[in-house]
Amino acid sequence: MKNIPLESKIQSDILKWLKSRPNTFTYKHEPVPAGIPDIHHIENGISFYFEVKRTAKDKPREIQKLRIKQLKKAGAVAKVVRSLREVKDIIYKNV
Question: Which residues make Cβ contacts (< 8 Å) with residue 4, sequence separation at least 6?
Fold first, then answer.
């Protein structure tokens, strides 16, 4: 896949931008429990969870879909993202 950054690079760019925002808390955690999205970010009392995938062909696993559904039901913003631009759009729409 030419010119598409690795998933780890996308995650790194997202984390760097999120951590630069004032009065927020952001971290990348190990997948425990299984299926929890890669990145958790809290801003203005809103919890955001981002499952990072590289391309549109890369789909979340069933356990990831379940966790995203559970997080949404609990009131969090939980999304599958493929770029920093998507994350920015989601943050700006919700804060």
Answer: 54, 55
- Dihedral angle at the C-alpha atoms of 9, 12, 17, 23, nearest 10 degrees? 170
22-77 pLDDT, tens digit each: 989 888 877 667 889 999 999 999 999 999 999 989 999 999 999 999 999 999 99
Residue pair 76/48 in contact by the 8 Å Cβ criterion:
yes
Q: What is the pTM of this model?
A: 0.89
Work out the angle between the directed axes of helices 84-94 and 7-20 (0-180°, nearest 10).
30
Q: Are strands 24-28 and 39-43 parallel, antiparallel or unpaired?
A: antiparallel
Enumerate domains of the chain plus CATH numbers.
7-94 (3.40.1350.10)
